[in-house]
From TrEMBL:
Record-given protein name: Alpha-glucosidase
Superkingdom to which the source organism belongs: Bacteria
Annotated Glycosyl hydrolase family 13 catalytic domain residues: 14-420
SUPFAM superfamilies xref list: (Trans)glycosidases, Glycosyl hydrolase domain
Family that this chain belongs to: Belongs to the glycosyl hydrolase 13 family.
Species per Swiss-Prot/TrEMBL record: Pedobacter segetis
UniProt-listed SMART domains: Aamy (SM00642)
Pfam family of the protein (one): Alpha-amylase
Length: 554
């Protein structure tokens, strides 16, 4: 049994504010829109909401390029709206987690505007500059830059600046203690307002070897792993914990890009006093082709690999506490990616995936819209995309004679905008998201897939999801109980037990569209069926397509 904490027992609901609910017809979701839906959120049974960045931003990367960390993006509202949101959430006993972007700011931030003015500017060392007379700096790869070069040349001071993401997202220089204090003060500002935690964007990347040597061969070109191993990373996390985080009742969650199972304990082992939780990326790469094209294997993914990854991570989180998610604003919809969005399977598959998320030993992060089974929009036309990643990649392929039809096809499965289409509230125009023109097209399946349809249907995905949350809350074994993989070699069924003292649950999940057998050493005839997405239809040792069952041994 682990030491308890609210965030270990919580279910966290992620909202992409731009896409949740528009209150003023400009086609962009906003804080007032979220306020108008708090009853809906509360009724889900979730405990906390994580909001993607809501701060002032020119939106080169939808708010991950912040120009003022202490103000609200005008598209989303103002500080009064924020205070209202926080106060109403707290009245409803909902916690609020904000998104800190500590690795980079917008190039339109005052700091960068100053920094680029001259080499002597007091803000010069808030960023990483490389004087051109030293020659071109050693290659760094950019996630979003068309030419994949993370060094941008700036004529004004004849120097290059570093940007791991877009050119409009210069990396902040954490080696500068002044910059670190700035970030800590930003944290104090929001924590003093009463927010309950922070998700920290690409936080493993903050520390850099400022001599910028060539990336050592042991990283084998895997630059994310190199970026995540900066020399003073853990020193800074400890400092931040000591100076800020430890002073509040709050939760800190690392976006764990580039972190593997061997290193995760450095971040979350409570004895080290750094961060509380981390979410890993290993699950997200499963079933992608290896050539970096961001393309899913046409034959699907290997459930064996999927099971190995989540089993390995259950162990890796041992010195601390885990997280689990199958989708977010950087990923396609979980139903399309890991389940099946065909009309005949949609309901079963969505419920099966939720059964997985809510019965693992880890804090579940549920991405808004997944609770009603939203799926990929699968755009045919590059002009429908809004995401810098897709647009820049397309441009790069266009300029270099790349395979554009292959790219458009691959994006239907993998593009981030698939997970960013507006929330589908009802079957009115634009799914009830806006009375204006939505910033990104609404998935046309909103006529069928929407929250209103599901609210009062006891068999809906939404109500199954709510029942799962209640079940998790009722049985602490589903939260803290030991996890054990069963029938490991089964290619269709993910089976595991959750055990605490004399209480044992058996979870059976068919990840395929075919009936599947399983083989476990427990006598299910004597067990109680607690929940299944097929009602009480149970066949001995066979699961229907995408069937999920939770048994309790008696
Ligand atoms: O989305 C990705 C690739 O499709 C990831 O590699 C992503 O860039 C990485 O997970 C970092 O993500 C975070 O920081 C980015 C931002 O674009 C993402 O939305 C955010 O979650 C830069 O701030
Ligand atoms: Ca709006």
């Amino acid at each position: 049994q682990k030491n308890s904490a609210w965030w270990k027992e919580a279910v966290i609901y992620q909202i992409y504010p731009r896409s949740f609910k528009d209150s003023n017809r400009d086609g962009i979701g906003d804080l007032k829109g979220i306020i108008s839906k708090l009853d809906y959120i509360k009724r889900l049974g979730v405990d906390a909401v994580w909001l993607n960045p809501i701060f002032a931003s020119p939106n080169d990367d939808n708010g991950y390029d912040i120009s003022d960390y202490r103000n609200i993006m005008p598209d989303f509202g103002n500080m009064a709206d924020f205070d209202e949101l926080l106060s109403q959430m707290h009245q409803k006993d909902l916690k609020l987690i904000l998104d800190l972007v500590p690795n980079h700011s917008s190039d339109e931030h005052f700091w960068f505007q100053e920094s680029k003015k001259s080499r002597e500017n007091p803000y010069r060392d808030y960023y990483h500059w490389w004087p051109a007379e030293k020659g071109k700096p050693s290659k760094r790869f950019s996630f979003f830059d068309i030419n994949r070069d993370a060094w941008a040349y700036d004529q004004n001071t004849d120097a290059y600046y570093l940007h791991y993401f877009s050119r409009k997202q210069p990396d902040l220089n954490w080696e500068n203690p002044k910059l670190r204090q700035e970030i800590y003060n930003i944290l104090h500002f929001w924590l003093n307002k009463g927010v309950d935690g922070f998700r920290m964007d690409v936080v493993p990347f903050i520390s850099k070897d400022t001599s910028f040597p060539p990336i050592p061969p042991k990283y084998n070109g895997n630059f994310a792993y190199y970026y995540a191993n900066g020399p003073f990373l853990h020193k800074y996390l400890k400092e931040m914990n000591q100076q800020v985080l430890s002073k509040y009742n709050m939760v800190s969650i690392a976006e764990g890009i580039g972190v593997n199972t061997e290193d995760v304990h450095f971040f979350i082992d409570p004895e080290r006093k750094e961060l509380d939780m981390l979410y890993h990326f290993e699950g997200m790469g499963i079933g992608f082709t290896p050539d970096g094209f961001k393309e899913a294997n046409p034959d699907g993914y290997s459930l064996l690999e999927f099971k190995q990854v989540y089993t390995k991570w259950d162990q890796a989180f041992e010195k601390g506490w885990g997280t689990i998610y199958l989708g977010n604003h950087d990923q396609p919809r979980m139903l399309t990616r890991w389940g099946n969005d065909a009309p005949e399977y949609r309901d079963y598959a969505a419920k099966m995936l939720h059964t997985f998320l809510l019965t693992m030993r880890a804090t579940p992060f549920i991405y808004h819209g997944d609770e009603i089974g939203m799926s990929n929009i699968k755009f045919d036309d590059i002009n429908d995309y809004r995401d810098i990643e897709s647009i820049n990649m397309y441009q790069y392929l266009l300029d270099n004679g790349g395979d554009l039809p292959r790219f458009i096809k691959a994006q239907k499965i993998t593009a981030r905008d698939n997970g960013r289409t507006p929330f589908q509230w009802d079957d009115s125009e634009n799914g009830g998201f806006t009375d204006g023109k939505p910033w990104l097209k609404v998935n046309p399946n909103y006529k069928i897939v929407n929250a209103e349809n599901q609210q009062n249907d006891p068999k809906s995905i939404l109500n199954y999801f709510r029942a799962l949350i209640q079940l998790r809350k009722k049985h602490k074994t589903l939260i803290y109980g030991e996890y054990q993989l069963l029938d490991a070699i089964n290619k269709s069924v993910y089976a595991y037990s959750r055990k605490y003292k004399d209480e044992t649950f058996i979870i059976l999940l068919n990840f395929t569209a075919l009936e599947a057998n399983f083989n476990i050493d427990f006598e299910l005839a004597k067990a109680e069926l607690i929940l299944s997405n097929y009602g009480n239809i149970i066949k001995r040792n066979v699961l229907k397509p995408y069937q999920a069952c939770i048994y309790k041994l008696t």
